[in-house]
Amino acid sequence: MRKLNKWIIIGLAGLLIVSFVIILIYFIGNKTAIENSSIKNQTSDQDYNDKDINSSDEKDEEEENNPALELLYSGKMEGVEFGIGTNSNKIMEQWGEPDYKENFMGGLLLSYDDVYFFTDGYILDDSITDGEVTGIYYTGDETVYGVHIGMPLEQVEEILGDPNNTYTSHYSELRADNNIILNYMAGEYKVDFESDESEMIQSISIWKNEKEME
Question: What global pTM score does this model have?
Fold first, then answer.
């Protein structure tokens, strides 16, 4: 009888041990599954956040495009049918002989009333070598990018927003000393709104971004 009880106790102990092992395995497996699920969810959340960040960056880039400067993105301005990159011969063929042409600031300048075309051509021994337009300087009555000559600087910023740069010019062939320049960029090009001490716009000029005119 005692021997039988002994085997019963051993059997019950074995059963308890097996049950404990099964429960332990289940617990460990369940915990691992939960941790894997958590890591997966975190990864998914991070991917989602990354997409949000990228979407935000793309939105910011889109918002930087100023609709008022639409023509500037192609190197052109209102009131002038030619843009940056136009050949000087084409301008003279369509607009005729300029009021004057001369070497100016290292290139050929063509002047038509209130429009001045800066090119990389040149005059040598009364012979003209044609070139492409590198800048257009305007002083006429046409409204350009919503701005016109005589407009206060403050109003320019109300129309176009904050400029990319604001600086004071130094005396050069092109500009007087201490004029205020509001500079706006659009892709490969930029526009300079120049004012004198009256803080009224005196000229509007467009250039390639790499061409610094101070």
Answer: 0.69
Write the Ramachandran bin of 4: left for phi over 0, alpha for psi from -120 to 50, otherwise beta: alpha
Summarised one tens digit per residue, pLDDT across range 107-147 is 999 999 999 999 999 999 889 999 999 999 999 999 999 99
Within 13 Å, how many C-alpha atoms sit on residue 160's CB side?
A: 28
- Do 133 and 154 touch, CB atoms closer than 8 A? no
Could you give the C-alpha distances from 27 to 20, 46, 57, in angstroms and in order? Answer: 10, 28, 45
Name the token pair of 67.
Answer: 């609709």
Tokens of 193: 């709104």
Q: How many Cβ atoms from other residues are within 10 Å of residue 49's Cβ?
A: 10
Running DSSP on this structure, what letter comes out for residue 114? T
CA–CA separation, 6 vs 201, rounded Å? 109
Place of tokens 């803080």: 199
Are residues 207 and 138 in contact, defined by beta-carbon separation less than 8 angstroms? no
Phi and psi at 146, nearest 5°, equal 85, 5
What SS3 state is found at 47? helix
Beta pairing, strands 100-104 & 201-208: unpaired
Token pair for 43:
């990864």
Give me the half-sphere count of Cα atoms (radius 13 Å) on the Cβ side of residue 98: 19
Query: What tokens appear for 102 in the block?
Result: 């001369």
